[in-house]
């Protein structure tokens, strides 16, 4: 159940019996051969699925994240972290004002981690607000599946190659992970190092594995949405 | 052609022959009986249609605008104008860096008008950037159609009641426009004055009129996209 | 009655019987052949006149507005919109703290419109604050006078050529409005297009028309100052 | 020669033979029995006088300064220092862009001193910009006159009681300077301590002394305007 | 070699043969029984040791980090992340201007991770700047030592209990890690959950282990300082 | 008694009987032949001494101040004033939240004066907060000692040449104060004018004088710390 299918009285009715909300954040950035919106599509698909099972509302996704290091790849659109934190703060304050109290931020992009600090700051200020944060690729369940199949999760490799994030043919041969000289790189260096944009490893795996990953993340989210 | 269907190499290829882009901005806010995303759905539908005919790319929509006056209606999510300007600036700078030079901001929400000042500021700073702005409801063609049918355009009345923005039954009887005591109102006053959220007039009109409105706005956009 | 003629005990006395205030904002920017302070002089003259008849106080004018598009004309001094919003906010908060509750922002410059969003935001935060906004050239009465005389109002044409804004001879022949290719222009493009700075039409009209315009705007303001 | 008496072509002409400008900043704040605009009126009178003798242009005054400590006195309107610095920066950047290179900031208010740091920052960024700062009451000449007459200069005492800043009768007896417990006070404490707002000493002195003070400050400014 | 032992000509001399710098950031925050400055003391000790062996300069430490979640523990002093990013940016820009090009940020506090995004942004803007980031507790070598001794690293447990961070007796019995209900907690919840501030496990271990940990981190840093 | 020697329970205990705190701010900037940290070392030495006699806690020093004019001297690290004000605000808010109410900011650097305005703003907002500010070199006692010995205090001359700020030999002959053309200088001009960085006069004086200066400043601080 997304905002776009509802009008304001629907939200008012919802708030009479529930105060939970899912907010999807992610990125518009290079994902190698995959969709530029991969980091939105995955958490949004998870949120939609979790919404169907739990009835928890899904706010419109914030389509842009912090991706300064990928700006030399055309198609990457990056917010400064300061902008991103202000944007998330404004969303949280808007819905808090209307009665939402338990909010799960469903994050699809590693570069957005700094936003958590703003969430901490807001938690100190807004009484009774319960915020949570879920990054599906950091799930223990996801890690276990990768380990079981001897697969290494990385940006824009098999890990993110769901049917719904593919927009072109994927290479059949795996990519050797490049050497990374420093922990902080300019966008120009990043492109030089990563070439096609994948961080290396297999580009795709069996659909069954992808289903398992999706389902384990979905189970995580349903558990988290209990706010127990 | 939206970013979500493409990967970064598609954008790189596109930029070899074109430097135009459409950026959809709007709002998540009360629209009376219509979808909370009405101000995104309309400009996005127009941008998609214009893209099909012109081949110009459509960036992911920025789903949130400046709607402080509607915050007492549940479902309204408002950015501070400062946040909104920063967000649009970051988007423009990202795509400018990659070679886009002619950018049409397709705006769906009247409250976003202040963003134009930031666009002016950016135009002074970024060489060869050509920005344009289109607000479909201010089109002379749209006004002419309204006049022809003796209809008054207003927020959340027939003007925005396209098939794709309707999420519930619409009242069959028109609403008397309320008395508005001042030009600046708090969110609480706004809700008290506007009740169901529509600014008054007919809630719906014949589908043929809506088609005419859509088409005249689409023609505007195709003309504007020539950047002549 | 302006702040400059008063000391703080005068304001304290005033606040015992009234809580209204006029705040003049405008611009220092090119106005063709007219004074660079045209957008301050007009609203300030109106505020002074309204003050004489209503007794409502006039705060010192904020002499600078948002005029990025005119920066290639020497003499234009422009605030970023973010600065302008902060400035107006600080003024409102200062006077609110001391007891003013009904504040009319008398705006002389179209480029300042984004400030209204900050006023909306403040209205949500400060209890019992009643803000209003008046832009004289958008008055229905002013439009009616222009229509009656078959005159088109525009920046730096006859509309703003009051006796007190003239600082040099005005051309006797009207100017053909130039072709404007886009809605967002850099300052350099703006100067190239507009040449002497007027947006076209007659440079001056009969003093009687100007008096009528001033008086109709003044009547608007006196009505608005009732805060009814 | 003030901006308000000129149009943009006058400024363009001026810039062909000179690149100097005076910018008046000050405050709208309690000045005891004197005008709320005392800190604008004095530097503006000095700038006007200096302009008459030197031909150097005077920009419109920025009517608001940083006066947080006086906010409990009605009539005080204070900018946050961050707003004030942004405002002055925007003014400097605007005029720099148009060719001004030697700019004297004529400051009328002690609380604005932090602005100098922003001026330092701008000096590091804008090539060939020469900024200067003049605070008349810190002039050695002014101090000498005070010493000669055994008078102690202080906020809102005789020092600022020029004919043109007086808006009411002034007490004939001097005020004993109050005890000030700390260097940082809230606005409420400040009002409690300072009562009528003067910092103590004589409220007025012979007009001849005031003339001498004005003239010695004027001589300072004429010397500074040589930018030698 | 720290800045405090040097004057500016020493830095100028240094820059003639080297352009490397270490910048220590961390936190002033509760560390259970350990010093409030633990997150500064550890990276500073490492930087000093690395400086002795490599000759690379050490800038003064920034003593405050982002610790909003610990604010209910007296002694925690937290910067907003926006402040922290601005502070680090100002430091980087200052030293870049003077010729430093290879800068290692030695971070002592997990909550500072968002700063990396600002470093990415700066890397895109400042040519030839090479930034790196080291967080000693995330070192593979440190993890290996912990694993070898079957110890779990956590905030304010044995991991940070070096001789030089101890300011009081440490409990001899380990602490059971508490249950943490959500990923985002207010400061009040955090204190309720964590009690004495340690995240659980042993409070102290054999000094030999601590030496090994220090030395493995030092070796990391010496390797990183080669900027190879 | 500094934070670094304490853990959070020590602060909690302290707050049960006292609510005073000293916060040291200063600069990392060129000081001629003296240490780059001179403006931290002096106020910190004074704070430590005052702490020993009064028992008042000393927060960790903020090692960076506003020194834009010295940025052409290697070793100077400058915060924008906006950053510095935010940093000091965050520190004050953190400790206020935990119960500190009487806070003495011990400032070692003239360029930080703008921070006082932010302190004023905070005083208006935080109930019962008593802030004070001490700049040792502006002490009447210090001035009296200088006068007594016919010495002129200035940046990086004898005035700051304590034993603990010296890091190299000091010239034996005094320096002639250079001619300073304007009150606002770029960093490049500043270096050109001041050469070795001292503002002129004797580089060193008898240790007895320095002891007297230290002691008179210490007495000031002990008096101020009574917050009487």
Distance N terminus to C terminus of chain A? 22 Å
How would you describe the oligomerization state of the chains in this entry?
Answer: homohexamer
Total count of strands of chain A: 4
Largest sheet: number of strands, sense, barrel closure of chain A = 4 strands, parallel
Order of helices and strands of chain A: HEHEHEHEHHH
Instruction: Tell me the strand percentage band of chain A.
Output: 5-15%
Total of helices of chain A: 7
Helical fraction of chain A equals: 25-40%
Textual characterization of the structure:
The structure is a homohexamer of 228-residue chains. By secondary structure, chain A is an alpha/beta fold. Chain A has a 4-stranded parallel β-sheet, with helices on both faces. In chain A, helix 2 crosses helix 7 and helix 3 packs parallel to helix 4. The relative contact order of chain A is 0.18. The mean pLDDT of chain A is 98. Chains in contact: A-B, A-E, B-C, C-D, D-F, E-F.
What are the SSEs and their pairings?
The structure is a homohexamer of 228-residue chains.
Chain A: H1 8-15, E1 20-25, H2 38-54, E2 57-58, H3 81-97, E3 102-107, H4 115-125, E4 130-135, H5 140-148, H6 187-194, H7 207-224
Parallel strand pairs in A: 1-2, 1-3, 3-4
Brief sketch in words of this structure:
6 copies of one chain form a homohexamer. Chain A is an alpha/beta fold. The first copy, chain A, has helices at 8-15, 38-54, 81-97, 115-125, 140-148, 187-194, 207-224, and strands spanning 20-25, 57-58, 102-107, 130-135.
